């Protein structure tokens, strides 16, 4: 079993709350290489550049500056409305932002989604796998989720491979989004993850990215 992340949520260290009746303190998650932190204004330029790029084509992009600003504001507000959301993914050793991962359930979503995106120049290093595994562990262990889905473009083969590495299986019967064009990949429940090779496989693949001498079967999934 992989010890996916350490969870911290000291409001003095993470003061990003939004005024309103239900202020939410966004926790910070730590893995071996990454820190998943609340979205902040200084992260917006990378977000904007990514969603203006071709890589965002599977996530509703490319977006113009107004659209990317509204989406980023929505990322922050989502925590306030839903009590969960997306984190910015940072490298622990440098603080550099490399992408986003977390939960997503805007109006019209049939189920809670686990989503991710890695900046184009940082892909292929296992960051998406490591961050998404940590986010899922938090939602399951701390927030009591009993499952989740990922809505994926059928042509987004990299994300589909990642979902499969996470133990997801395509659910052809589940309602989708976007005029039912997205494929629904269902994450295993917390109980289904127990005593299986899924988490062990995730840990092995992350270890390979940390120590390339150690090489499990399979290739990069992001």
TrEMBL record:
InterPro entries: Acyl_CoA_acyltransferase (IPR016181), GNAT_dom (IPR000182), N-acetyltransferase (IPR051531). SUPFAM superfamilies: Acyl-CoA N-acyltransferases (Nat) (SSF55729). Pfam families: Acetyltransf_3. This is Protein N-acetyltransferase, RimJ/RimL family. PANTHER family: GNAT FAMILY, PUTATIVE (AFU_ORTHOLOGUE AFUA_3G00765)-RELATED-RELATED, N-ACETYLTRANSFERASE DOMAIN-CONTAINING PROTEIN. Transmembrane segments: none annotated. Keywords: Transferase. It comes from Vannielia litorea. Residues 33-169 form the N-acetyltransferase domain. The keyword Protein biosynthesis does not apply. Residues 1-11 have a biased composition (Polar residues). The keyword Coiled coil does not apply. Residues 1-21 are annotated as: Disordered. GO terms for molecular function: acyltransferase activity, transferring groups other than amino-acyl groups. It comes from the Bacteria.
């Amino acid at each position: 079993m992989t010890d996916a992340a350490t969870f911290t949520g000291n409001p003095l260290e993470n003061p990003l709350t939004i005024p309103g009746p239900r202020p939410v303190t966004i926790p910070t998650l730590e893995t071996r290489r990454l820190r998943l932190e609340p979205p902040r204004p200084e992260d917006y330029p990378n977000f904007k550049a990514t969603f203006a790029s071709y890589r965002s084509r599977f996530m509703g992009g490319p977006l113009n500056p107004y659209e990317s600003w509204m989406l980023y504001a929505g990322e922050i507000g989502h925590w306030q409305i839903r009590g969960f959301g997306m984190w910015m993914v940072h490298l622990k050793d440098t603080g550099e932002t490399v992408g986003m991962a977390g939960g997503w359930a805007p109006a019209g979503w049939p189920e809670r989604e686990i989503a991710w995106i890695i900046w184009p120049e940082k892909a292929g290093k296992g960051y998406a796998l490591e961050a998404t595994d940590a986010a899922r562990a938090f939602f399951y262990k701390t927030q009591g989720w009993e499952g989740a889905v990922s809505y994926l473009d059928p042509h987004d083969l990299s994300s589909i491979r990642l979902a499969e590495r996470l133990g997801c299986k395509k659910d052809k019967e589940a309602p989708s989004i976007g005029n039912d064009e997205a494929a629904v990949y269902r994450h295993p429940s917390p109980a289904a993850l127990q005593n299986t090779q899924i988490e062990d496989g995730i840990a092995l693949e992350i270890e390979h990215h940390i120590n390339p001498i150690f090489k499990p079967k399979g290739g990069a999934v992001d």
